[in-house]
Structure formats: C-alpha cells, structure tokens
Amino acid sequence: MEKDTRTKLIEIATELFATKGFFAVSVREVTSIAQVNVSAISYYFQSKEGLYQEVLKNQLKPVLEALDLVEKQIGLSAMERFRFFADQVAKTHLNYPYLARVMMNEVTNPTEYGGAIVENQSSKVYRFIYQTIEAGVEDGEFKSDLDIPHTTFSLAGMIIFYFVTKPIRRKIIPNEENSVDTYLTNVLKNYLYGIASE
C-alpha cells in the first residue's frame, strides 16, 4: 500500500532536516521530492515550522516510550535499569537512524520551533538518569560522594555520542560492524566501573 501524503512528507523532511538542518531546507524541496503540491505542507502542517515540529515529535516519541518501558520494570537495581535503558536506546536508534542528528541539529543550532520539544524530551531522560543514579547511591551501588548532576550529563553524553558520530566513525573505523550493543555494554562497564587498573 502506498504511503499517505502526510507520512511521506514527514519521512522526506526527517532526512532533509537531519542532514541539512532546519534553515537550509525549503518547503519546495520537500514537496518536490515527495512529488506533491506545495500546498500539502499548509494542509497537513500549517507551515514548514509545523512540519519540523511534527518531525521532532515523531523522532523523539520512541525515546519517551523507551523510558516508559524502563519505568514499568519493577525491582531492578540501578545498574540493571541502566542496562535495560541502554538496550532500549540501541533499538530506538537503529529504528530511527536520523534521531541523533535531528536532535543535535536542534541543540547546536536551535530554533524557536523545536527548542521546547527537545528540551522537554531531554529533561525526561535527564530526570530518569538522575533518579537512577540517586537510587544507586542510596542503595550503596554507587559512590556516596558522586556529583549527580554532572554524572548524569556525562553518562547521557556517552550514550548519545555513538549515534551522533556515526558518519565520521565510518571513516575512522571503516570495517566496523554494527556494534551498538558492544559499544553500549562498554560504555556502561567503563562508566560504572572505571578503566583504571586496580
């Protein structure tokens, strides 16, 4: 079955916004690739800005769903919660290959249309990691003197780094297989246990 026009526009715009950024993409370019009339943007999204917001929501929705799934896991230790979350993040990024780039474009070159959407999603991820670290400290899994806010940002950054650096990583490690699971396992191991020899 042929994709409906709205879905097709979102898919095309997602790739364009991810690779070129919001400001470099025109409505005409999106509709030309989709082979639809320019008025389709107004009909489905009101404007280019509305289309961009829909792309962001569409890309970020599975991250929030992954968080909800983790929250439903009862009785997990902090480390188990991180491992489960990392697994969900890996699946999400494999299914949504433009997610990291769309998000980083908005973070590094913010717009008034996408800032609130990315900020809302980021704050939920931050809160989850923060609360998990806090619980780990309280349960004695993690050091009691951790700087939880900075620890939270560093772990989030390490997880996201793999997906953001995909284009350059392919050049630096040309024969790398799809090793997202290996990467995330190492991130958690190195992050939670350190790399210094005893």
Short summary of the structure?
The chain has 198 residues and is mainly alpha-helical. It has ten helices and no strands.
| Amount of helix | over 70%
User: H/E order of the elements?
Assistant: HHHHHHHHHH
Biggest sheet features: none
Give the strand tally: 0
Q: Tell me the β content.
A: under 5%
Count of alpha and pi helical runs: 10
Quaternary assembly: single chain
Features:
198 residues, mainly alpha, 0% strand
What does this structure look like?
The protein has 198 residues and is an all-alpha fold. It has ten helices and no strands.
List the helices and strands and how they pair.
Layout: H1 5-20, H2 27-34, H3 39-45, H4 48-71, H5 78-95, H6 99-108, H7 115-138, H8 148-164, H9 166-172, H10 180-193
